[in-house]
Amino acid sequence: MRLITLVLAALLLLIQYPLWLGKGGWLKVQDLEQQVDAAHAKNEELRRRNAKLDSEVRDLKDGTGAVEERARYELSMIKQNEIYVQILRKGQIPGDGATPAPPPPPEPGKTAR
């Protein structure tokens, strides 16, 4: 009787092995589900990034506002007949991080020196 109980317990353990540790076992499935969740999160992040880039491309193609804004902030460009004003904080040196405004165009009838 004792031998039959030991054999049945051993068979029960052998049957449980594939369920827990086998190729399609619960531990493997849990690991794969975590990988799938991580891939979904990465894909969503990339979708948001692509949507942002797509809207920026559409702005650059369709409107001049985005081009003008980039020229102002990245290249420190100004429009013609526009006055450039730089406000300095106490102790700040003029010209830090900003390009000075170009000289105004000469008045009609006068020559530039």
TrEMBL record:
Annotated HAMAP family: FtsB
Keyword Zinc: no
Keywords attached to this entry: Cell cycle, Cell division, Cell inner membrane, Cell membrane, Coiled coil, Membrane, Transmembrane, Transmembrane helix
Region feature (Disordered): 92-113
Pfam families for this protein: DivIC
Family (UniProt): Belongs to the FtsB family.
SUBUNIT field: Part of a complex composed of FtsB, FtsL and FtsQ.
Protein name, as recorded: Cell division protein FtsB
Recorded GO CC terms: cell division site; cell septum; plasma membrane
Organism phylogeny: Bacteria, Pseudomonadati, Pseudomonadota, Betaproteobacteria, Burkholderiales
UniProt topology in membrane: Single-pass type II membrane protein
InterPro entries in alphabetical order: Cell_div_FtsB, FtsL/DivIC
Coiled-coil ranges per UniProt: 29-63
GO biological process: FtsZ-dependent cytokinesis
Bilayer-spanning residue ranges: none
Its biological purpose: Essential cell division protein. May link together the upstream cell division proteins, which are predominantly cytoplasmic, with the downstream cell division proteins, which are predominantly periplasmic.
Biased composition, class Pro residues, residue ranges: 100-113
Keyword presence, Transcription: no
Primary localization class, coarse: membrane
Ranges of the Periplasmic topological domain: 22-113
